[in-house]
Amino acid sequence: MCGGTLNARTRRRRFYLQRMSDPHPESGHGVNRRQFLRDGARMTGLAGLGGLLGLVASRSTAQGTVWQIDPQKCVRCGNCATHCVLEQSAVKCVHAYAICGYCQLCTGYFEPEPNDLNTGAENCHCPTAAIKRTYVEDPYYEYTIDERLCIGCAKCVEGCNRFGNGSLFLQVRHDRCLNCNECAISKVCAGDAFRRVPASQPYLLKTMSHA
Amino acid sequence: MSKPASLVNRREFIRQGAGIVAGAGAALALARVAKANAFAFDAEGFSKTDPKLIGYEEIKRFTSRQSEPRRLAVGPEQRLYVAGKNGVSIVDFEGGPAAEIGLASPARCIAVAADGTVYVGLRDHVEVFDRKGQRLAAWDSCGPKAWLTGLAVGENELYAANAGERVVVRYDRTGKVLGRIGQKSLERNVPGLIVPSPYLDVKLGRDGLLRVNNPGRHRVETYTTAGDLELSWGAPSAAIEGFCGCCNPVGLALLPDGRCITCEKGLPRVKVYSPEGKFESVIAGTESFPRNAKAGALNDKSDGVLGGLDAALDAEGRVYVLDLVAGEIRVMRRKA
């Protein structure tokens, strides 16, 4: 490789020396050193400008998209809670109320075999008590996510999806996501659920069609 | 010539080697534990069934000819009717094709009368077919909220479980509405049906009483055809005696002596209860349905939750279990 490069350089140098010594070999229009340097500088400038424009274009494309989780691909692996670069993950559980059954025994809220259907910590499986349970009317209860406490572990999402309607699901919350070029969670996402979406439509929400 | 002195003798070398191998193994095991999901939803303890409780054995299994199958029924000529995405598939008990009833929208439930008339529940109405598959009638819509998920037919009446409106509609065989069963009523002491997801079923027993699942209350309720609540039983529990998750059971079948077969989702399992609701045995446990147990609501579905199981019974006492996720039908026979 090295020898080949030197040979090519030598050949190029010989060619220019020949052109310099004989500026009009055939056509009568040669290139002298000054012109060569001027053309070279111009070409370098154009290439640099092109590169700069390309860089700006690519940056603006990256800023036009954000990371998001496809709820249909999410396998609730728990990596969202542990791999975000933020101390508390930017991934949060969100709730599609239109799909929710408002169950008395919510499997997103309660352990698989709770001692009792009350808010005792031993009965609930959210590790940070981020789900609030509110009585509506017999036998319906509303479940609300406190995003300040939610760490995006998806334990509730698994319970809701496995037994219920799947109204709980994970989303990257863009009021705190840093939109890293290479999302640390996406690299380890077990379901390959992370993808870039237009910043103008930053959420992939579940609707009744998913119920 | 004397043997050169060695720093490590053979015994020492093997001992150190074994130590290194053991250390590497322990490190690998620790790394694996560290990789495991610290927030895993742990229901594994309920996924294994005590073999002593299993009273049935699988004698055959075949794939449903209908995609997205939802309910199945046994006809009088001992054929199996499977309602699904494109209509109804009629198969013999070996799974071989017998006939098809094509429909423009998915068939969600099915019942076959003793005279061979086939009643198919679509999202909001019932359609009637003769035994050759010719459409005889399409009844009026039950309303914009209707979501039919179960049918039962008697000599003169048809009962349609409408999950969307949490009621069982009582029809005569011409499609005239005769009554509504299961609606909340303090006067009649009916607590009301709670249906968080579209799985309401109804079956008519030989005793002339209706069995209706009340999934949000984890119960099976017995009604007269006039709508009086006679009996209810069942309790929420992931243990084998109870009904697991938020809303179970999702499907029913009745044995000739009045015992009840229940189907569950989440922890997919099929069990037998006495007429009074005492747990008796397991037909198929969660370990029999690995895909179904993992799927939950993640399963791709076009217009409704698609999961869980359904069951039907033939004249010889064989139980046909439909796995909605795997699209398979298992034929179960009582163990000798």
Describe the structure concisely for a colleague:
By secondary structure, chain A is an alpha+beta fold.
Explain this structure.
- The complex is a heterodimer of chains A (211) and B (336).
- Chain A has 211 residues and is of the alpha+beta class.
- Chain A has helices at 2-21, 33-63, 79-83, 155-163, 184-188; strands at residues 65-69, 91-95, 131-137, 140-145, 168-172, 194-198.
- The radius of gyration of chain A is 31 Å and the shape is rod-shaped.
- The N and C termini of chain A lie far apart (62 Å).
- Chain B is mainly beta and 336 residues long.
- Chain B has a domain at 10-52 and 65-251: Neuraminidase (6 Propeller).
- Chain B is built from 2 helices and 24 strands.
- Chain B has a 4-stranded antiparallel sheet, with no helix packed on it. A 4-stranded antiparallel sheet of chain B has the order 2-3-4-5, with no helix packed on it.
- The A-B interface holds A 72, 74-79, 81-82, 101-107, 112-113, 125, 127, 139, 153-155, 158-166, 209-211 and B 37-43, 45-46, 194, 196-197, 216-218, 236-239, 244-247, 265-266, 296-298, 300-301, 303-305.
Helices, strands, pairings?
The complex is a heterodimer of chains A (211) and B (336).
Chain A (H helix, E strand, L loop, with lengths): L1 H20 L11 H31 L1 E5 L9 H5 L7 E5 L35 E7 L2 E6 L9 H9 L4 E5 L11 H5 L5 E5 L13
Antiparallel strand pairs in A: 1-6, 2-5, 3-4
Chain B lengths: L9 H26 L20 E8 L7 E4 L5 E5 L2 E5 L5 E6 L6 E4 L5 E4 L4 E4 L5 E4 L9 E6 L3 E6 L4 E6 L4 E5 L20 E3 L5 E5 L4 E5 L5 E5 L17 E4 L5 E5 L4 E5 L5 E6 L5 H6 L13 E5 L5 E5 L4 E7 L2
Antiparallel strand pairs in B: 1-24, 2-3, 3-4, 4-5, 6-7, 7-8, 8-9, 10-11, 11-12, 12-13, 14-15, 15-16, 16-17, 18-19, 19-20, 20-21, 22-23, 23-24
Structural class of chain A: alpha+beta
Spatial order of the strands in the main sheet of chain B? 1-24-23-22
The chain-level mean pLDDT of chain B equals 91
**Mean pLDDT across all amino acids of chain A:** 84
CATH architecture of the domain at 10-52 and 65-251 in chain B: 6 Propeller
Helix content of chain B: under 10%
The best one-word shape of chain B is elongated
Q: Between the first and last Cα atoms of chain A, what is the distance in angstroms?
A: 62 Å
CATH topology of the domain at 10-52 and 65-251 in chain B: Neuraminidase
| Fraction of residues in β-strands of chain B | 35-45%
